[in-house]
């Protein structure tokens, strides 16, 4: 599993074509990839929240959102505009997750993008993103990583320059989020004092992250120019799966 992960990441970054506007893109303060920063953000949230101190679900979710925003402020500490774009998209994506639970009792994502972003994606992007969605339904990390490798190869060979950047962010988030949740969902559940973890399907969580990242990248590119796509994608992905996970746990046990 570790070997396959290393191969996928190596292939992805080794084959990614440098974008013409890459010198204008805002990088995170530590020059990590979007996926790496995303996982650091989830660790930051996990270490910051103390479940027993909250008197209501809303207070817990509000603090989770604030923790995500605090991480984004630190990650983009040298760029106020990037902070604004990332936090704005974090707020929007988490609101979407919470409203879905309020209306449907679950995250209403059939694929790996929010319905309101459907018109922003090409048919090729939807086709390739659907492969990731199918792989995530397997709840198996190896299956997901192989799918990411397949999709990345097709992105290189079949996507236009305009389509590639969003797909690259999506694959990066998919790899990172899948690795994180396959390894860490048990400890999140145990935050609530629950030891039984076999019921949880972690594959649904990266869907929330990818959808948030796609929406955030699109919104960031509009709000902050091309350079806003990276903080937008990170902001959209940070906190979405954590919110999804917490709501799933609460709905299942309490």
Report how far apart the termini are. Answer: 34 Å
Question: How many strands?
Answer: 0
- State the order of secondary-structure elements, H for helix, E for strand: HHHHHHHHHH
Quaternary class: single chain
Helical fraction equals: over 70%
Shape field: globular
Report the radius of gyration as a whole number of Å.
17 Å
DSSP strand content: under 5%
Q: Which residue ranges are poorly predicted, with pLDDT under 50 across at least 5 consecutive positions?
A: 1-30
Provide a count of the helices: 10
Outline the biggest β-sheet: none
Mean pLDDT metric:
85
What number of domains? 1
Structural class by SSE content: mainly alpha
Task: Give the helix/strand layout.
Elements: H1 2-15, H2 34-48, H3 57-75, H4 80-104, H5 123-136, H6 141-158, H7 161-190, H8 204-224, H9 229-237, H10 240-253
Helix pairs in contact: 1-6, 2-3, 2-7, 2-9, 3-4, 3-10, 4-8, 4-9, 4-10, 5-6, 5-7, 6-7, 7-8, 7-10, 8-9, 8-10
């Amino acid at each position: 599993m570790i070997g396959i992960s290393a191969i996928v990441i190596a292939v992805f970054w080794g084959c990614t074509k440098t974008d013409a506007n890459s010198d204008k893109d805002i990088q995170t303060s530590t020059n990590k990839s979007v996926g790496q920063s995303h996982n650091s953000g989830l660790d930051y949230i996990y270490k910051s929240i103390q479940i027993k101190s909250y008197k209501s679900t809303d207070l817990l979710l509000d603090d989770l959102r604030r923790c995500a925003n605090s991480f984004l402020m630190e990650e983009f500490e040298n760029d106020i505009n990037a902070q604004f774009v990332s936090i704005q998209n974090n707020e929007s994506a988490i609101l979407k997750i919470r409203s879905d639970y309020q209306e449907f009792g679950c995250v209403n994502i059939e694929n790996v993008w929010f319905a309101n972003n459907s018109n922003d994606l090409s048919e090729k992007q939807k086709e390739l993103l659907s492969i990731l969605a199918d792989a995530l339904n397997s709840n198996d990390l190896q299956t997901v990583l192989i799918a990411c490798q397949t999709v990345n190869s097709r992105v290189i060979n079949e996507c236009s320059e305009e389509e590639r950047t969003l797909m690259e962010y999506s694959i990066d988030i998919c790899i990172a989020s899948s690795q994180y949740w396959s390894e860490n969902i048990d400890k999140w559940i145990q935050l609530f004092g629950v030891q039984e973890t076999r019921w949880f399907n972690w594959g649904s969580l990266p869907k929330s992250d990818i959808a948030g990242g796609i929406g955030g990248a699109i919104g960031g590119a509009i709000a902050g120019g091309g350079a806003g796509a990276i903080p937008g994608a990170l902001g959209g992905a940070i906190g979405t799966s954590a919110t999804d996970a917490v709501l799933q746990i609460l709905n299942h046990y309490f």
